[in-house]
Amino acid sequence: MNIRELTTEAEWRRAYPVMKELRTHLEPESYLQLVQEMRGEGYRLFALEEDGEILAVTGVTIRTTLYYGKHLFIHDLVTRADRRSRGCGERLLSYVEEWGRSRGCGSVALTSGLARRDAHRFYEERMGYDRVSHVFRKIF
Q1: Which superkingdom does the taxonomy of this entry point to (predicted)?
Q2: Rounded distance, CA 125 to CA 49, Å?
Q3: Are 70 and 34 in contact (CB under 8 A)?
Q4: Which of 75, 130, 73 is nearest to 106 (CA)?
Q5: Tens of pLDDT along 79-121?
Q6: Could you give the residue ranges of the DSSP H alpha helices within the chain?
Q7: Which domains does the chain have, with CATH numbers?
């Protein structure tokens, strides 16, 4: 298995079917437009591949806030459904954690939907994350 950053539109297109498993509301063109916009804000997309197939993807940014200081923020983390529970997510998340640490980040943060109990268990039990807040949203 190989982990690398995806930097071109062609690579982002290859990652779309995996990302679509998490971000079901996105169509290919809206996905590409958002990735391009987010790149301007520091968004980086990484993929775990095996034999040329993308098995998992994660999108991250480095942020600085008063609460966390300089930290890595995980926007997206998804493993292809047929490859879950085989260590792909753990390998990819560990990789980007180290990537952030090497760039001066003191912690990592992410949000996860309320219904994603398996993901919560993964973050807390496998990856050592603490549940520290609730996230609120208001749609305009």
Answers
A1: Bacteria
A2: 25
A3: no
A4: 73
A5: 999 998 899 999 999 999 999 999 999 999 999 988 899 999 9
A6: 9-22, 28-39, 88-101, 117-121
A7: 2-126 (3.40.630.30)
Single pTM value for the model: 0.93
What DSSP letter does each residue of 72-86 carry, written as one string? EEEEEEEE-GGGTTS
What integer pLDDT is reported at residue 134 of this predicted model?
Answer: 87
DSSP3 helix / strand / coil % (the chain, rounded to 5): 40, 30, 35
- 12: three-class secondary structure by DSSP: helix
Token pair, residue 28, equals 């290919």
Residues near 86 by Cβ (< 8 Å), separated by ≥ 6?
79
Handedness of CA 37, 41, 46, 52 (dihedral sign): positive
Residue whose tokens read 């996105």? 26
Is residue 78 scored above 90 in pLDDT?
yes
